[in-house]
Amino acid sequence: MRYSDRGGLSMRARVERERLRFVAADMFAGGMSAPQVARELSVTRKSACAWRRTWEVGGKAALASKGPGGNVCRLSADQLDRLVWELERGPAAYGWSDQRWTLPRIVVVIKRLFRVSYTARGVAYLLRGQGWSPQVPVHRAAERDEEQITAWRGWRWSALKGPRRPGAPGSSSATNRARA
């Protein structure tokens, strides 16, 4: 998974990458060039060159991991729990007549409850981190009658469809074979 796919590095992978940078720093201190370090550690030449530049400016300590990237959540753990509870109450609790949470609506709820501004995309990331996923409601007419639909399929659909063709050999090709 790539960084752009919100993959990033796990904590274990981040620690391993930091260890690699520290090994590279020791190799640089021993007089190895960046291309040699890249070959030895099986990393790209670009990474090895960047590590060397960083090492030359700040030493081995400059190659330490800075932690996970991305923005820090602006809501506390208690606020996140409260948000989940409020969302489970449903949109009707906030005056929306249909039972559908949309991202802009959740932005409004967060603003009202916690006085914190989020974008719709930020709310999507926030909710994904809480285990929520986007759902698409099934659109069905309120007047839908399943019994009438079943009856209609029995008598009307079969008449519209017509009789079945007798089992004749056919071809999966869109064209017919030429006749000799």
UniProtKB/TrEMBL annotation:
Signal peptide: none annotated. InterPro entries: Homeodomain-like_sf, Winged_HTH_dom. Residues 170-180 have a biased composition (Polar residues). Residues 160-180 are annotated as: Disordered. Residues 98-153 form the Winged helix-turn helix domain. It holds the Pfam family HTH_33. This is Putative transposase.
